[in-house]
Amino acid sequence: MKIDIGKTTTPLYPAPDLIVATYDGEGKPNAMAAAWGGVCASTPPSIAISVRRERHTFLALEERKAFTVNIPSERFVAEADLFGMISGSEFDKFAMTGLTATRGTSVDAPTIEEFPISIECKLVQTVEIGSHVQFIGEVLACFVDESCLDKQNRPDPKIVKPIIFMPGFGRYYGLGEEIARAYSIGKTLIKGDKK
């Protein structure tokens, strides 16, 4: 039997561990961890991230109208965690982690060289949502480490090894094993004709 646990998004897991990078007003690269984010449209390809107004990144997003979404692999879990723990207004996160901020090719925002995936986005819309503001970015470029691509030039999650975050539990996990093929396993339940 299910019980009501109240108004919460905690069971909506896993969340991606997205590292959003921007330049601040002085041109200094900064990055923050954002679990509230993901694909919001296929055409044009777009990503939404939600950021609290008090975050250092918030002002940079509004000023620069650009950001990158960087996907860390499991071996960078400590660095990814640090990006979500401290403020870029007080610390140089790139100096602390030893990671490399590389200027984006199509947007005024840095990518993180060591992370296997970097997606460059131009800000196209903002939406006020309670405690957060959602920033919607149109994808202008997506860079993937060649060693992480499969034969069809897609990022292979088994090679990328992205970090996933469990909201409410404060834990990071890796991906588990493949359990089925999408748009295929469901066919086993189709019997007879359509309605």
Automatic annotation (TrEMBL):
Its cofactor is FMN. It holds the Pfam family Flavin_Reduct. GO terms for molecular function: FMN binding; oxidoreductase activity, acting on the CH-NH group of donors, NAD or NADP as acceptor. Keywords: Flavoprotein. It comes from the Bacteria. InterPro entries: Flavin_Rdtase-like_dom (IPR002563), Flavoredoxin (IPR052174), Split_barrel_FMN-bd (IPR012349). SMART domains: Flavin_Reduct. Residues 12-155 form the Flavin reductase like domain. SUPFAM superfamilies: FMN-binding split barrel (SSF50475). Belongs to the flavoredoxin family. This is NADH-FMN oxidoreductase RutF, flavin reductase (DIM6/NTAB) family. It comes from Dethiosulfovibrio salsuginis.
